[in-house]
Structures are given as structure tokens and as C-alpha cells.
Specification:
Blueprint (H helix, E strand, L loop, with lengths): L2 H5 L11 H28 L3 H12 L4 E2 H8 L3 H13 L3 E5 L7 E5 L1 H21 L5 H16 L4 H5 L1
Antiparallel strand pairs: 1-3, 2-3
């Protein structure tokens, strides 16, 4: 199987498959291609991984910092993964850990000044890449697709809803 087929989930669809399955595979394929391009560009231009970028994005939204458990929850990864990413970013002086006053076993993680500057540059590039990668769709089509996906999202149960 070629590398392109490996990341193009849509090649699994056949004309006799239900339209919903073909749509799902097309969505997955498009998302994977966009994400792979962003991963590559982050690595090439900023020497950073997508998970590290994502963690910094979470911290940029919360200047007062976040606990390790909240980072884990928001990123939907294990605490061990978050610890590893924070360790790497801390070595590069992009984030800092501070002991929480209420629980000396817990830490709040926040961006350093250098982390804020580095993330600002990455976020600006990231936005430009997303605009570029979605540019095959006209603005009107992007708005329409956004609305359609919103409808789909609102009709899809969350993990919490599935448990009840």
C-alpha cells in the first residue's frame, strides 16, 4: 500500500457502500491530510510536535495556568503524556510549573514569557496554514460546510450522553 493510500481512508469506500460511510471516510481522509501537513510544517519550521503545540495552545488560552490533570482532560491524553510534554517544554524554558498553594502535590503549568512569544509566532503560522489548506473552498462554501458540520455535531451524542 502506498503512503498516500495509508493516510487516505477514502480508498476503502466503494460505490456500493452507504453514502454515510463514504462521507465519514472522506471527512476522516481530509482531516488526516490537513493534520499531517500541519504536523510536518510545525516540525520543519518550529522544531515542535503537534502535541506540544496543542499543550501550549491550551496554556495560551489560560494565562493563569492549568493543572496537569486539567491539561490531560482538555487534551484527552493520559497524565503521563502530559508530564512528558511539560518536561520537554520546561527544559526549553517555554513553560513553568508552580506548586499549587492548596495542594503541594499538584502543579499549575503556565507559559513563560519566551513561551508566549514562541507560541504567538507558531499560532500565526498555523492560522495561515489552515487558511491555505482550506482555500480550495470558497468562503461561502466554508461557511456552508461549517454550518452543516455544526448540525452533524449537535446531533451526535457526547461520551457523557452515551453513558446515560
Amino acid at each position: 500500500m502506498s503512503a498516500r493510500q495509508d493516510t487516505d481512508m477514502e480508498v476503502r469506500a466503494h460505490a456500493d457502500h452507504h453514502a454515510s460511510l463514504r462521507l465519514w471516510l472522506r471527512l476522516l481522509s481530509a482531516t488526516t491530510r490537513i493534520e499531517d501537513t500541519i504536523r510536518q510544517r510545525l516540525r520543519e519550521q518550529f522544531d515542535i510536535t503537534l502535541p506540544r503545540f496543542d499543550l501550549m495552545a491550551q496554556l495560551e488560552r489560560e494565562p493563569q495556568g492549568l493543572s496537569m490533570s486539567e491539561l490531560s482532560r482538555r487534551m484527552m491524553v493520559t497524565g503521563g503524556n502530559v508530564t512528558s510534554i511539560v518536561d520537554q517544554l520546561e527544559k526549553e524554558q517555554l513553560v513553568q510549573r508552580q506548586m499549587q498553594a492548596t495542594d503541594r502535590r499538584s502543579f499549575t503549568v503556565s507559559l513563560t514569557e519566551a513561551g508566549c512569544k514562541a507560541f504567538a509566532a507558531m499560532a500565526q503560522a498555523h492560522e495561515g496554514w489552515v487558511v491555505e489548506l482550506l482555500s480550495p473552498l470558497a468562503e461561502r462554501e466554508q461557511t456552508q460546510l461549517h454550518q452543516l458540520l455544526g448540525t452533524l455535531k449537535s446531533g451526535t451524542p457526547t461520551k457523557q450522553e452515551e453513558k446515560t
